[in-house]
Amino acid sequence: MNYTKINKQNYQIHLIKTKKFKKNVINISFKQPITNKIDVIKKDILCNLLILGTNKYKTRRELEIKCEDLFGASLNIKNKKAGSYNLFSLTASFLDNKYTLENTNEQVIEFIKEVLFNPLIKDNNFDDKLVELAKRGYLEDIKSIPDSPNQYSVIKMRNLISSESLYAFSPYFYLDEINNITNEDLINIYHDIINNSQVDISIIGDVNDDIVSLFDKLPIKSKIYNDSVYSLVKNNTIEQIDEGNYSQSKLVMAYNLNNLTEQEKMYTTYVYSFILGGSSDSLLFKKLRQDNSLCYYADSNYVLFYQMLEINVGLESKNYDKAVSLVKEAIQDIANGKITEEDIEKAKVTYKNAWKEILDNPLSIINMYLAHVYYNLDLVDERINKINKITKEDIIALAHKISLNATYLLKGMNENE
Known about the structure:
Blueprint: E1 2-7, E2 12-17, E3 23-33, H1 37-50, H2 60-69, E4 74-82, E5 85-95, H3 97-100, H4 104-117, E6 121-122, E7 125-126, H5 128-143, H6 149-161, H7 175-179, H8 183-195, E8 198-205, E9 238-244, E10 249-257, H9 262-277, H10 283-290, E11 295-303, E12 308-315, H11 320-335, H12 341-358, H13 362-375, H14 380-387, H15 392-399, E13 402-412
Parallel strand pairs: 2-8, 9-13
Antiparallel strand pairs: 1-2, 3-5, 3-8, 4-5, 6-7, 10-12, 10-13, 11-12
């Protein structure tokens, strides 16, 4: 695999040459700092809108037929939040020319340009019916969040900690604002993406340098954003219990990770989290489920860009107090060094295997290089090298930098049904 970064006037191209995959993948990413949370929602809706039609392909069905004509090419548009940044991206996957005996590469790139730069706009407006269709589909998804108590309990906990923080941001708390988003709002955010983003084009596959010229003279104005991706969360000591029509209660405990070194941010905390609640051999699973039969599951999750550790437990509400006590006990056990070298090695092996699997998926490889460019995250070999250096003493030291922020219970009112 050979990686080359090519600086264009308004954007960068990341060319990754490899013969490993039958399909080529192109990703165009538009990175912007989050300055207005409603803009994130507008971009979410725009993802739905842009795949409903262009000036050349008037309907979603016509777009699907074009994908079929391109030997089953796939195209999707996504918007995601990463710390203090928003990433709006289009990804296309398609067979290389040598498998189709046609100029598929060129045709797919023209198709990408059509979707991104020639949307179905007339008189500086999207089609009103398509706007309503895109909004309706989005609203249905957002309104269904409470149907998933695992997801709902986490966003409720985060909102409890700091409703104004990016860590807590969820479209679920902005339903009225979503209803009020207009056609003009979506036009404006579309132009803002095209003209005020840091733009990176990633190409992976068995391609040659000529493919780069197919992206000349794109109608975009690119910027460079170098502000920190991290958006830290203020320390609190909060406890709250809410009720819901669920057959199981959900306990979420959130911990701040304070004053971390780069090694701790990127590696030690992942190992710590795995030992605490990353598998059926974890401290949480053993204490809460195996030894005390208090829960259905117990796990932990490290949220890198906010430097928060979240512990999730499914249980009956009568076991709430005991479960909270045992979670705190497991946290203290690690601080007291009650972990084994075998625990540490299992965590390392798990992450090393996961990182190696990145190299088996073309989009994962693209995302790895983009994370390296955007956030200075290491490539696979360096990740493996650095995680191998973690010691028991490193994990104990990290355990003393953890402080409880919030304890939240979403109490199931139908537990006995």
